[in-house]
Write a structure and sequence with these properties.
The protein has 2 domains: 127 residues, Glutathione S-transferase Yfyf (Class Pi), Chain A, domain 2, CATH 1.20.1050; 150 residues, Rossmann fold (3-Layer(aba) Sandwich). Helices cover 43% and strands 10% of the residues. The chain contains 12 helices and 8 strands. The longest helix has 18 residues.
Length: 298
């Protein structure tokens, strides 16, 4: 039995064969090496991150996440509900907190959940996987399985906004969170100073106002180059996708020559733990992290 077990909420992008499938391959390796077990919540539903703030109102939005929390309580009692996706984490944590804070809201949510045969007691805690790694595992324990140093690689740690606000990681600065830099150092790579660390990637504007979104992305990538980074590392699926995918579009429109790999922290850990490029999901990158793949192949 694993030392640490959690009720796992995949969310839409992190389920198998979804856009974050390669991310989850690396998460699986990290869990195996650190003796962490993620128990998938049965019959989970979308957290509503993409549409929850539309015209439906607060209660329907919160009940989407409340149902997942109730399923975790029912099927995996005593286990914190963990998400690897910042948007899912925000939705789940907001629901968990607001249902306690606003008088009468928990009762209203439970009236809705009753139609699905569920009841939320509100005891389950919504957490991000990074919180689990930092708070429950710790940097020393995370470093122990390292068998292959990533020495020589320079990384720009791009936290983005959803993992940083409004909740953030306990003890970290909202303006200059350092945990991602520490993770980079932990695997032997070098974190570069980076002035776009908590800038929004423009994900919400990607389709409605693409020029604004791409201007945000250009600043993020340009700063990484200016500070000597060879790749960007992030904890967020949306940040990873946006900053990687739109570099080619920016190149076409603005005459730039961006080709900056954007990887996940768990991919760095997987390679450092002795995993292959495929184990780390590096074959799923649009812009190949060739230097990281070369280390994996040694």
């Amino acid at each position: 039995m694993a030392k640490k077990e959690y009720a796992y909420y995949p969310g839409c992008s992190s389920q198998k064969k979804a856009s974050g499938d390669n991310f989850m391959r690396s998460i699986d390796v990290v869990c195996q090496k650190l003796d962490v077990q993620l128990n998938e919540i049965p019959d989970w539903n979308c957290c509503g991150a993409s549409i929850g703030y539309g015209e439906g109102g607060e209660l329907p939005r919160l009940v989407l996440s409340a149902r997942n929390l109730a399923l975790a309580e029912k099927n995996l009692p005593g286990q914190d509900m963990v998400s690897v996706c910042p948007a899912c984490w925000l939705g789940s944590r907001e629901a968990a907190e607001r249902l306690h804070e606003i008088p009468g809201l928990m009762a209203e949510a439970n009236e809705a959940l009753k139609e699905a045969g569920l009841k939320l007691d509100g005891k389950v805690k919504a957490r991000h996987f990074v919180e689990v790694l930092i708070e429950d595992v710790g940097f020393e324990a995370m470093k122990k399985p390292v068998v292959k140093s990533l020495e020589g690689l320079k990384m720009a740690g791009y936290v983005g906004c959803q993992t940083n606000r409004p909740f953030g990681i306990a003890g970290e600065s909202f303006e200059n969170p350092m945990y991602l830099d520490k993770m980079v150092e932990m695997v032997g790579a070098e974190p570069v100073k980076y002035d776009q660390k908590v800038t929004c990637c423009g994900g919400a504007l990607a389709f409605s106002e693409p020029d604004k979104a791409q201007n945000q992305i250009r600043q993020i990538v340009e700063s990484a180059y200016d500070h000597g980074a060879e790749m960007i590392v992030t904890p967020c699926q949306l940040c990873q996708a946006n900053v990687e995918i739109y570099q080619s579009e920016i190149n076409k429109k603005q005459g730039t020559k961006f080709n900056m790999p954007v990887v996940y922290y768990s991919q760095l850990m997987t390679i450092a733990y002795g995993g292959s490029a495929k184990d780390a999901g590096l074959d799923g990158q649009l812009i190949r992290a060739e230097k990281l793949e070369a280390i994996a192949g040694k």
